[in-house]
């Protein structure tokens, strides 16, 4: 009995141990099952981290290691070493995707760390996350989660790290409660969250790191000490960049409460007023307040201490007055660009290596630089009013970037600049410099970007190897990638040693006085993307094997001869002509114009008597050939008339007008051919040709005009002519390749009309078999009346051909003849066109009627004709101009008109779908904007929609998300993107298709504007016609900022109502 009593406690302890082991094993199995359920939400594991290791076989106890119940073989899973419970899941940066079910993780009662950052998980953050109260570290950043942050998340009382940044989270934050009192790090940047900054500051306690940048938090930070005291005591990092903060800044008494602050970024908001004294922030190292509306002078303590700043960014504000001496011993980056600072350059920069003072009103002589220290590494003082000459500044041996562009410097370029051992970028453009180019610039081992354009430089380009003593140590290829010497007075030939610039991507020598033959060594420049040698005196042939990477090419206005090499024939005729009278593009090439160029209109700077003789011979030959063809054709027609007269009319010819040879205007409704309207001719809203009068009906029997394509016999439309004297000089597109199906852009009214009578065989209107449907009661006419209406070709788009038709009563219409195969069935078409036809808005050109014929090619849409030219013409018209340049006020009005109209369409659930400057017509003396070609995608088949979007992409107006979509469809956000591009065009007067050279190489318009904006150089983009004074500089900055927001990624892009309201808030 005693033995039994003695064994009893031991026995019970043994039973208890077995029970605990069993429970532990059961709990472990439950956690493993939970992880396996979580795994089911993962649809893609490209690195095979999860699929290969999270195996169900671990539920078998026999394969577990020792007594451990931890699923340690699961990738990214960590356990407590004592209890073996799962405490951490680390799956960051392995490209997983799927829609997560957070509820599957609820059984993990000991989970402290959940890190899923850097993947592509989708779905919503469910309230159940708030029940995982053991969590201390939650990182879901850089995924694709949507929806609001659930209030239950605030119940995670133990949480000290919360990172939900770079998702698509929306809604108001924080919610009704905020109990995260242990939180040290709060990172919500780059979402779509909104809320009151006052509410946010008042609930944050003990937080050391706060990043709310890239959201829509609003309100003023001119808060009382009571609102910020709990945050100010602990916060070290505070970032609210790119929100909607307004009003004033912290007051003197409040800002000094942030005693531990090390990093403060409130850039790109709308904060106004003067900066308070920041001298009592003993640890502040980074201060970024750029892109606001601060005014007044710059506090001296920021430049001279005692604040230990390392980086100071006050760019893009309205600070004024002189720049005080900089003698801070800690400052390493100083950005005061794009303000209204005046006076001379500061007498000292201290030890600061990176300085940007560009786009201010600094003046006086730059001689003060002689007193600066040797620590300077990057200096940008471009776009000021600096004077004087560049002296031999030998102390700047650490310089990597030097930008004096757009000032008033005079004198020669000192050779010492080429001796700086680290210099990568040198920009002296747009000054008054003269004299020769220093040879040292072309022997530098580091110089990569050299821009000396728009000066008065003379002499030759010293790139020959004749001075071998200077070149003994040079590699076979120098580092130069960008070389822009355009708009100078350089002479001589382009030396063959240009082939040593093997890294060159951009070479611009346009508008100089260079001569000689183009060296074959240009073929060695395999990286070349941009080559402009136009407006010089080059002779000889074009090298045969220029870089296959060329995107921009222009040799017009020279004296080149021979045949255009095959690999250059995709470039438009304007890349080669005017000028180069004996340079031929072989027939059948893919160049937009392949006939012999005609220089009758002139336009080149360099002409010779020999060239004039050659022109005369060529023109006379063409004229003789045309006359012979005309005589033969007239004889043929006479014989045909005689033959018809003898044989009479068959049933197929009954009803035809037999009055051959008469001059007539076209008529609209004559469909006696199975052939569609011509789809291969290059007349379009996007690809201009003269608006010659044309028939919309019968076949073209004869024409004295030169045409590019021969239509099939019996084609239902007269051929649009190409006048050989009309050059394709559309700015911004000259020299760019044209790809099939994506013509170079232009306005339908861009080139003067060349009216020529044409001989047409017109069918009688009594054979019409289709139906004409009116969309309102404002007009009444018959198909016969329309068929007899004189018409002229306006252009061609991805939808079809556009005509202007004048009815007998004088009313003018535009008639869009839709292309074959792009239109929906009759029932669907009628439903959609009635919806589009119901749109009535002062800024929308209304649809009036449509015609549905018995054949597939007989689909027409009729709208009012607007007496006004397109925005494209007003922006890009070259000399001789018919219109004065648009003022900034007029451009802003156009932007507001277009946004207002888009908002009207979007409110009715209708994306425009085809927004571009050629579809914006300016009417009347006040240039009221009216939209055309809206919503036509609703009439199209999927193939038609895809072609429309492809065309937008070729022209530069397609939103990026449409390019990657398998079935792209016009959308509201895509309209906003296109509007953003148009806003950029209004500000810069550059086309969306332009390739622009700069310090970063050749980029397109949107990349260029974004780059300038990011670097605080937004005003560099502005069209000089409107950038002359300071009157509207703030308004231009605002418009530029709106344009950049419009082309953000789709989830960050504002809606049209936000854009409209922002545009309306700009005052001029």
Automatic annotation (TrEMBL):
Its main location: membrane. Coiled coil: none annotated. InterPro entries: Inactive_SerThr-Kinase_ABA, Kinase-like_dom_sf, Leu-rich_rpt, Leu-rich_rpt_typical-subtyp, LRR_dom_sf, Prot_kinase_dom. Residues 718-748 have a biased composition (Polar residues). Residues 585-607, 718-750 are annotated as: Disordered. It comes from the Eukaryota. It is found in: Membrane. Residues 1-26 form the signal peptide. One of its GO terms (molecular function) is ATP binding. GO terms for biological process: anatomical structure morphogenesis; defense response; plant organ development; response to other organism. The chain crosses the membrane at residues 615-636. It is a single-pass membrane protein. GO terms for cellular component: membrane. Pfam families: LRR_1, LRR_8, Pkinase. Residues 788-1068 form the Protein kinase domain. Keywords: ATP-binding, Leucine-rich repeat, Membrane, Nucleotide-binding, Phosphoprotein, Receptor, Repeat, Signal, Transmembrane, Transmembrane helix. This is Protein kinase domain-containing protein. It comes from Cinchona calisaya.
């Amino acid at each position: 009995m005693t033995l039994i009593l003695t064994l009893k406690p031991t026995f019970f302890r043994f039973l208890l141990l077995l029970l605990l082991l069993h429970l532990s094993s059961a709990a472990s199995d439950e956690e493993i099952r939970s992880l396996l359920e979580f795994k089911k939400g993962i649809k893609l594991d490209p690195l095979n981290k999860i699929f290969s290791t999270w195996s169900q076989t671990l539920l078998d106890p026999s394969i577990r290691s020792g007594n451990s119940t931890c699923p340690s073989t699961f990738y990214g899973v960590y356990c407590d070493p004592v209890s073996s419970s799962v405490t951490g899941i680390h799956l960051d940066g392995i490209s997983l995707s799927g829609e997560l079910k957070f509820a599957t993780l609820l059984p993990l009662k000991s989970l402290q760390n959940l890190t899923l950052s850097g993947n592509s998980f989708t779905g919503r953050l469910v309230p159940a996350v708030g029940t995982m109260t053991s969590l201390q570290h939650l990182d879901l950043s850089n995924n694709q989660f949507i929806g609001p942050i659930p209030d239950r998340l605030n119940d995670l009382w133990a949480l000290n790290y919360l990172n939900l940044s770079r998702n698509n989270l929306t809604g108001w934050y924080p919610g009704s409660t905020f109990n995260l009192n242990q939180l040290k790090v709060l990172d919500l940047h780059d979402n779509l969250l909104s809320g009151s900054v006052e509410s946010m500051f008042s609930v944050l306690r003990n937080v050391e790191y706060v990043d709310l940048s890239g959201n829509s938090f609003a309100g003023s930070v001119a808060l009382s000490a009571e609102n910020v005291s709990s945050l100010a005591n602990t916060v070290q990092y505070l970032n609210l960049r790119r929100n909607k903060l307004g009003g004033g800044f912290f007051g003197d008494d409040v800002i000094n409460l942030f005693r531990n602050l090390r990093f403060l970024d409130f850039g790109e908001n709308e904060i106004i007023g003067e900066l308070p004294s920041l001298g009592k922030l003993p640890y502040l190292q980074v201060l970024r307040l750029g892109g606001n509306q601060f005014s007044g002078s710059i506090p001296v303590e920021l430049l001279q201490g005692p604040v230990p700043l390392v980086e100071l960014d006050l760019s893009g504000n309205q600070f004024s007055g002189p720049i005080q001496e900089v003698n801070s011993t800690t400052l390493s980056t100083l950005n005061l660009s794009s303000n209204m600072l005046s006076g001379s350059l500061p007498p000292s920069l201290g030890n600061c290596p990176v300085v940007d003072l560009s786009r201010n009103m600094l003046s006086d002589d730059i001689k003060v630089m002689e007193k600066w220290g040797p620590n300077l590494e990057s200096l940008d003082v471009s776009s000021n009013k600096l004077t004087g000459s560049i002296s031999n500044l030998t102390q700047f041996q650490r310089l990597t970037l030097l930008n004096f562009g757009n000032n008033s410097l005079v004198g020669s370029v000192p050779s010492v600049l080429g001796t700086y051992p680290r210099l990568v970028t040198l920009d002296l453009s747009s000054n008054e410099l003269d004299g020769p180019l220093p040879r040292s610039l072309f022997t530098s081992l580091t110089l990569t970007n050299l821009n000396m354009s728009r000066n008065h430089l003379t002499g030759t380009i010293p790139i020959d190897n004749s001075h071998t003593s200077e070149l003994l140590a040079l590699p076979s290829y120098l580092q130069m990638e960008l070389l822009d010497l355009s708009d100078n007075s350089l002479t001589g030939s382009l030396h063959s040693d240009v082939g040593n610039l093997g890294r060159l991507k951009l070479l611009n020598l346009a508008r100089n006085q260079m001569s000689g033959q183009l060296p074959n060594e240009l073929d060695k420049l395999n990286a070349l993307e941009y080559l402009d040698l136009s407006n010089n005196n080059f002779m000889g042939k074009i090298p045969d094997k220029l870089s296959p990477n060329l995107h921009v090419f222009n040799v017009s206005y020279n004296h080149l001869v021979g045949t255009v090499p095959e690999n250059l024939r995709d470039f438009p005729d304007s890349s080669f002509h005017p000028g180069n009278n004996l340079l031929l593009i072989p027939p059948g090439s893919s160049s937009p114009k392949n006939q012999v160029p005609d220089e009758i209109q002139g336009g080149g700077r360099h002409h010779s008597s020999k060239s004039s003789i050659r022109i005369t011979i060529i023109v006379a030959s063409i004229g003789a050939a045309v006359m012979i063809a005309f005589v033969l054709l007239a004889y043929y027609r006479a014989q045909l008339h005689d033959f018809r007269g003898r044989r009479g009319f068959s049933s197929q010819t009954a009803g035809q007008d037999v009055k051959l040879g008469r001059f007539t205007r076209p008529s609209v409704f004559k469909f006696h051919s199975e052939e569609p309207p011509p789809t291969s001719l290059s007349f379009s809203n996007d690809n201009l040709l003269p608006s010659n009068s044309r028939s919309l009906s019968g076949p073209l029997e004869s024409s004295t005009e030169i045409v590019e394509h021969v239509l099939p016999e019996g084609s239902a439309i007269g051929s649009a002519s190409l006048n050989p004297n009309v050059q394709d000089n559309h700015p911004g597109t000259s020299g760019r390749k044209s790809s099939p199906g994506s013509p170079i852009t232009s306005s339908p009214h861009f080139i003067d009309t060349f009216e020529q009578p044409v001989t047409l065989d017109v069918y009688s209107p009594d054979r019409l078999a289709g139906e004409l449907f009116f969309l309102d009661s404002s007009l009444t006419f018959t198909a016969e009346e329309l068929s007899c209406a004189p018409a002229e070709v306006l252009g061609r788009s991805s939808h079809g051909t556009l005509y202007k038709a004048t009815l007998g009563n004088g009313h003018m219409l535009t008639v869009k003849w839709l292309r074959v195969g792009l239109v929906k069935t009759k029932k669907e078409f009628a439903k959609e066109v009635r919806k589009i036809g119901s749109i009535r808005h002062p800024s929308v050109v209304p649809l009036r009627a449509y015609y549905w014929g018995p054949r597939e090619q007989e689909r027409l849409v009729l709208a009012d004709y607007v007496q006004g030219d397109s925005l494209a013409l007003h922006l890009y018209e070259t000399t001789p101009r018919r219109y004065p340049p648009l003022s900034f006020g007029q451009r802003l009005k156009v932007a507001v008109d277009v946004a207002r109209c888009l908002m009207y369409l979007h409110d009715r659930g209708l994306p425009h779908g085809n927004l571009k400057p050629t579809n914006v017509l300016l009417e009347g003396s006040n240039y009221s904007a009216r939209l055309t070609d809206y919503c036509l995608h609703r009439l199209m088949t999927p193939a038609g929609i895809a072609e429309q979007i492809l065309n937008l992409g070729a022209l530069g107006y397609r939103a990026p998300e449409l390019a990657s979509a398998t079935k792209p469809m016009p959308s509201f956000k895509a309209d906003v993107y296109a509007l953003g591009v148009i806003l950029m065009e209004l500000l810069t007067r550059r086309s969306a298709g332009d390739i622009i050279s700069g310090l970063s190489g050749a980029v397109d318009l949107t990349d260029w504007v974004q780059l300038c904006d990011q670097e605080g150089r937004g005003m560099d983009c502005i069209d000089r016609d409107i950038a002359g004074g300071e009157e509207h500089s703030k308004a231009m900055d605002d418009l530029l900022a709106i344009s950049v927001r419009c082309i953000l990624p789709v989830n960050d892009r504002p809606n049209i109502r936000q854009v409209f309201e922002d545009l309306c808030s700009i005052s001029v």
